[in-house]
């Protein structure tokens, strides 16, 4: 019988831990602040930043929102980032992606101080993750490590297959698994015999962006399956990258969509923001 890894419960545990850490920091005179910048009116992004604000409020993190019009110039966005970099009350800076097309995402990310880059997208933080000397890891892969470890699953020596090689999920995920002493394989759109590779894995992380991509024949008996996919279907429902009903009976552990990886992202953003404040204290 498979077990469901409950992302809602584990993310609530992490938030509770962070609430205590924020209170302890406040007692020693250190405030914790997160600045969130949104350019334009993307409805999904508005929902995300609303959820981030709520999480900050619940944990005692001071959140500041910067809602900029769609036609904001690159220069004025860079000036805002520079101002936030120099503001001692701001520990974390998050520029909500995607940005409108006329703005160069790379340039904006590179302008954020690596010490405040709580998304861990800055090249310095990417490099630190590579060498295993990091304070921030990108929220989704870091959340997946928490889901696995807090479920009592050891990664040491396990064969892990990550499907997807994006800079936000697949690549950092692979590095974090490697730092846990797993043996890691990355599959992507050009991988040959993908089903064969995936079916050798003790742990499968699916970050493809294709509904029900991972089918039962790709998964070994007793595997741990982590579904990162968030696909909005025609009926408005969310669907993961894993065919849950078919795959779950073969698994030892599996994450659902929704309620698996999704809730971890904000919890890890809170954790990174607290980590940034602790660094400031040092
Ligand atoms: P992406 O589109 O940047 O990357 C998808 C990856 O899948 C690519 O590296 C590509 O090589 C690979 N791929 C595509 N087709 C393939 C195929 N046929 N076989 C093997 N590999 C294939 O996407 P992303 O940003 O990494 O996100 C992946 C999914 O995770 C999306 O559904 C996204 O919505 C979701 N996501 C969820 C969270 C969360 O908080 N739960 C966070 C980020 C992304």
Question: Concise description?
Answer:
By secondary structure, the protein is an alpha/beta fold. The protein has helices spanning 7-27, 43-59, 74-86, 105-111, 123-131, 139-150, 170-179, 194-198, 244-247, 262-281, and strands at residues 3-4, 33-39, 62-68, 92-95, 159-163, 183-187, 203-206, 223-227, 231-232, 238-239, 251-254. It has two domains: 30-113, Rossmann fold, CATH 3.40.50.10860; 139-262, Rossmann fold, CATH 3.40.50.
List keywords for this structure.
282 residues, alpha/beta, Rossmann fold, 10 helices, binds nicotinamide-adenine-dinucleotide
Identify the CATH class of the largest domain.
Alpha Beta
State Rg. Answer: 19 Å
Structural class: alpha/beta
- Strands of the widest sheet, in order across it, are 1-11-8-7-5-6
Mean pLDDT: 97
Strand content: 15-25%
Helix-strand topology string: EHEHEHEHHHEHEHEEEEHEH
For the secondary structure, the number of strands is 11
Calculate the terminal CA-CA distance, rounded to whole Å.
47 Å
Question: How many structural domains can be distinguished in the coordinates?
Answer: 2
User: What are the segments in which pLDDT stays under 50 over at least 5 consecutive residues?
Assistant: none
Described by strand count, sense and barrel closure, the largest sheet is: 6 strands, parallel
**Assembly state here?**
single chain
Provide a count of the helices: 10
Residues in helix, %:
40-55%
> Which term fits the overall shape?
globular
Q: Any guess at the CATH architecture of the largest domain? A: 3-Layer(aba) Sandwich
CATH topology (fold) name of the largest domain: Rossmann fold
Bound compounds: nicotinamide-adenine-dinucleotide
